[in-house]
Amino acid sequence: MVAAKLLGGARSALAACSRRPLLPQVVRQASRPATTVAQRLPLLRSLLAEKRVVRVIEVHSGFSALVVDSVKAKRADGSEVGYDCLWSSSLTSSAIKGKPDIETVTTSERVQIVDDCLEASDKPMIYDGDTGGEKEIFR
């Protein structure tokens, strides 16, 4: 019975997604100009200075960053809200490569993942520089 409910919910979500024209949005977003660090950093600082809850979500690919950019929710008052910021962690960088989070993904691979995400989104990113292993990586 639980599986049937889950499957029914998944079908409903799939049906809702198939009715929305997501692909044209993604194509439009992918063609926008890149945003520089100099443009992102003041935005991140202002978000933190507001002393409110900052909505951050983990991304692990350019595609997931595009999805985050397009996600919006309606509040009870009718206003829309989305995510403010991206997050990158070694856990998901390792997981998408099918590896454990124990320094098996190199810093170069992590930087490439971040680069892909930042190319796809203009949101600021919080980067978790720990690689799941020893702290010597920061030397």
Question: Can you give keywords for this protein?
Answer:
139 residues, mainly alpha, three-stranded parallel beta sheet, 6 helices, globular, disordered N terminus
Explain what this protein looks like in three dimensions.
This protein has 139 residues and is mostly helical. 50% of the residues lie in helices and 10% in strands. It has 6 helices and 5 strands, in the order H-H-H-E-H-E-E-E-H-H-E. The strands form 2 sheets. A 3-stranded parallel β-sheet has the order 1-4-5. The chain has a two-stranded antiparallel ribbon with strand order 2-3. The longest helix is centred in the first third of the chain and has 18 residues. 16% of the residues are buried. The N terminus is likely disordered.
Helix content: 40-55%
Order of helices and strands: HHHEHEEEHHE
How do the strands of the widest beta sheet line up side by side? 1-4-5
Low-confidence parts: 1-31
Mean pLDDT: 76
Largest sheet: 3 strands, parallel
What separation lies between the terminal Cα atoms?
A: 54 Å
User: In percent terms, what proportion of residues is strand?
Assistant: 5-15%
Helix vs. strand class: mainly alpha
Q: Given the C-alpha coordinates, what overall shape results?
A: globular
Rg, alpha carbons: 18 Å
How many E strands? 5
Number of helices: 6
Short recap of the structure:
This protein is mainly alpha-helical. The protein has helices spanning 2-19, 22-30, 37-49, 62-70, 90-95, 107-120, and strands at 56-58, 73-74, 80-81, 85-88, 125-127.
